Amino acid sequence: MTPEMCDRLDPFRAEAVERGVPADGMDRWLTTAARPCVTLRRDGDGDGPVVGRFGGPLLLPADIPDPAHPFVASIDLAALPADATDLPLPPDGHLLLFAYPETADDYETMGSAVYVPAGSPVVERDRHAWNPFDIDDDEAMFEEFPQGPLRATPQVSLPCHHTVELPGEPGNGPLPEHPLSEQLVALWASTRDRMAPEGPLQIGGYADEEAIDTDPVATAVSWAVKAVEAGRWEGPVSADVSDWVLLADWQAGMDVEGWESATVHWVIQRDDLAARHFDRAFTSVFWNP
């Protein structure tokens, strides 16, 4: 953690002391678990630099096929604050995010990510090409997608989940080497707004959703593995969650009427991200209609 991140977590520490959390357990949690991330808020809701936008024209290189899911946002990677995440992101270019904020009927990705290198010639595309049959309900949902500039705020991120699946055993258990995980996650939930207020879009850090016990990234990874097994997505993929990172989280329920509680998670294998294979991102959705 950077000194700034440490200072930002002071309310968490103070609350932990009041609740009698052992100092060694709290310090180990903060040292091993804290991650930097960037929260993106719409213009008027944040005061950081403009780093992209929700919606707007869809600009892609001519040789990239029309994405199969609705356009969500575009992020100017060069405009992100330096060292704002621990992800191996390119230093420039644009990251475009696409998603349909509904749970899949089967194991399949519900969105995609496209990286457009800086200086690439682009052409404006039809933002409705993902809906070739002009289904009215889908168009009505898409019209609810947010629009407008996005401002960035560097934040600190701690786990929102407190259990992991136990291999070969039924049920879940505490995070490895963190027997206080449930207590510490509850403490984070009660103090987070004072340190790292949630925004509709987040780059890096930990995934969050309405009802959470286990890591949503782990769930997405299991779906990606099963999607490959079912022939619905191309491998290879690792079943080891530690090989994956959260690329972005979109709390779609904050913006899209009728999709309250929906959250989109874009996950990617760290090696694929470092190699700029953004087409290898897998998109999962939590929705509790």
Number of helices: 7
Q: Briefly note the CATH topology name.
A: Hypothetical protein YwqG fold
β content, as a range? 25-35%
Q: What is the CATH C-level name?
A: Mainly Beta
What would you note in describing this structure?
It is a single chain. The protein has a single domain, classed as Hypothetical protein YwqG fold. The two termini are 37 Å apart. It contains seven helices and 14 strands. The strands form three sheets. The protein has a ten-stranded antiparallel beta sheet with strand order 6-5-4-2-8-1-11-12-13-14. A two-stranded antiparallel sheet has the order 3-7. Helix 2 (10-18) crosses helix 5. The chain is of the alpha+beta class and 289 residues long. The protein has helices at residues 3-8, 10-18, 23-33, 136-143, 181-195, 216-229, 270-274, and strands at residues 35-42, 50-54, 58-60, 71-76, 94-99, 111-116, 123-125, 148-157, 163-165, 172-174, 201-204, 244-250, 263-269, 282-286.
